[in-house]
Amino acid sequence: MTELVQDIEFINTNERLIFINQQNKSQSFNIEKTSLKINTTATKVHDNERVLEKFDIKGIIGTVQLVSGHYLMVFKERYEVATVVGKKIYQMKGFTIIPFIPNQQSLVNIPDQQSEEQHLDMIKWVLSSENFYFSYNYDITHTAQRIASMSEQEKKKPFHERADSRFFWNEKYIQMFTSHGGALDAWTLPITMGFVESRKLKGYNFTLISRRNLNRAGTRYYVRGIDKDGNVANNVETEQIVEISQDTFTSFVQIRGSIPLLWSQFPNLKYKPSVTFYGKDSDNSKYCETHFNQLLDKYGKVTIINLIDRKGSELKLGEAYENIVKNIKDTRYIWFDFHSICKGMRYDKLSLLMDQLKQDLESYGFFYMSQGKVVKKQTGVFRTNCIDNLDRTNVVQSLITRHSLANQITQLSIPKDTFVGSEFEHVFKNTWADHGDTISTQYSGTGALKNDFTRTGKRNFKGVLRDGENSVMRYYLNNFKDGFRQDSFYMFTSKDVNLTENKNHESKPPSPLFWVFIFIFIALLVSIFYLPNPTAHSASFLFHFVYWVSTILASMKLMMKYQNEIVDKPTLFKLESVYPAPIKSSSPSSSSKKNK
User: Fold this and answer.
1) Within 10 A of 153 (CB to CB), how many other CB atoms are there?
2) GO CC terms on record (predicted)?
3) What is the rounded radius of gyration, in angstroms, for the C-alpha atoms of the chain?
4) pTM summary value
């Protein structure tokens, strides 16, 4: 397998884009801007060429074609975040997007130029998350067990050929480089979104890697449930690795993902939008079975941990889920009503859930490699979900991996006191808390709720206040920003989007909100200049109280009336096209009961 180029000198001339390996100057290639022809012979700037810019880069993200032409995406900086089996993993920093032709947007008409600028803004928004990771010599898209299970022929393939397409976020942008018979394999770098962190504990290496599935990627309320190909929203694979040396280590994998049914919860200014079910019972069963067949093929047996409430619309979701998966082989369904059982901040009751999982933890085991030889493999996986697959899910996943860790250190013959005590608690809890915040920010726009428990092992008043702050911010983002964010995810990941077309994300005009604010402002003026002083006597205070309650209620009624004009929605694809026609006020399970 060819090791990837790590340090690159980039030269942008009026004719070509030139890339030179700084560690081996004879290794280079260039792209002719007009013909798009790639040459891999020794490169130097011609006498008649004019150098526009010259700087060092650490990797190539790819190229993208928009209305006016092609753009090159690269990054200038990297930050080391982990070492796995002696190989370094980096976080991508300092991306830049370079047009093939200077001022090429000026060559198109104004509407096309505006569309292109917005497409660039969307690409920049996705890349600016700073949650993209890569390695020059470690296949970050695969778990250690999958890598060990590859044939020798497969292991010799370049990373971009053998990478897991679920986690290969720049796959559609490297086509210009992969069509040259392997000549540019050393320059083609797979990048994945997620979370990576590695810590040292008394000479041992503790690493957490999460890979975010790009299929059905998006924002918290606009992407829920499953699609016809079995992909679910907020699907993340998380791997915990414990190493005592480069060839002796253990790995434990678990996953999270949205409830695999056809359902949505589109934002509508309500704090908690209602759940809508879609499609026929046969569709829900088919797509759900497809999803679990994929999991069974990749991970072995599946233990489903459903943490949603046993009331309201979540109850219908849980019942429909249970009704379908009970007929799928090699799966076990556990419904643990997190909020009800742990109410009053009684998180110690999570031990009840762990008691139910104990047998499967022992049965599934973990991947273990000793002195370069595979000793045992993980034979099953825990699939955890709550309604968002964020807050409750992260708490439970951290507990599951803690219990697996006890078995891992026993297998590795690591002294048990290595993974106990204040030093370990600080490393373990803060790593998982950082993980929770990162995954939550990618999906909801804010850090995780309940993360004080993950970070300290206790719930406290300060954590509750932080949860309130994050909840308010989530409400704002979900209703007023997520349309653009969802279009950005869809545009970046979907292979069906033609970026050479003039198609904008059409933000909703702020006029309805403007008039609501005017209404409140007038009410404030009336209160100041015309109403009696509220401190004068109790009747005046009561009048003011009724006045402002009425004003707030009237404002909320106005906002709800014009919610379709206020809420920022995705426009690159229609929400109605995501699913078949909705099933009114029923769930798949309830409709099936009616049909019996």
Assistant:
1) 7
2) endoplasmic reticulum
3) 27
4) 0.88
Residue 228 CA, distance from chain mean position: 20
Q: How many angstroms separate the Cα of 101 from the Cα of each of 76, 385, 579? A: 20, 47, 41
Six token digits for residue 433: 């808390």
What rounded mean pLDDT belongs to the chain? 87
**pLDDT band of 578, cuts 50, 70, 90:** low
Q: 284-304 burial, b for 16+ CB within 10 Å, e for fewer?
A: bbebbbbbbeebbebbebbbb
For residue 584, give the DSSP letter.
T
The residue segments making up the domain with residue 341 are 194-493
DSSP at 394: H
Q: Are residues 335 and 462 in the same domain?
A: yes
Q: How confident is the model at residue 44 (pLDDT cuts 50, 70, 90)?
A: confident
Q: Are residues 284 and 335 in the same domain?
A: yes
Per residue, what are the HEC states of 510-562? CHHHHHHHHHHHHHHHHHHHCCCCCCCCHHHHHHHHHHHHHHHHHHHHHHHHC
**Do the Cβ atoms of 75 and 92 come closer than 8 Å?**
yes
- Within 10 angstroms of residue 105's Cβ, the number of other Cβ atoms is 18
- Model confidence at 350: pLDDT above 70: yes
b/e per residue, 309-341, with b = 16+ CB within 10 A?
A: beeebbebbbbbbebbbeebeebbbbebbbeee
Q: Is 498 part of any domain? A: no
Cβ–Cβ < 8 Å for 104, 68: yes
Cα 324 from chain centre: 26
Q: Tell me how far apart the alpha carbons of residues 12 and 17 are, in angstroms, rounded to a whole number.
A: 5
Dihedral sign, Cα of residue 443, residue 444, residue 445, residue 451: negative
Q: What is the pLDDT of residues 332-341, one digit of tens each?
A: 999 999 999 9
Give residue 116's pLDDT.
85
Is 344 in the same domain as 264?
yes
Say how far apart CA 343 and CA 118 lie, in whole Å.
45
Is residue 186 scored above 90 in pLDDT? yes
| Overall size of the chain counted in residues | 596
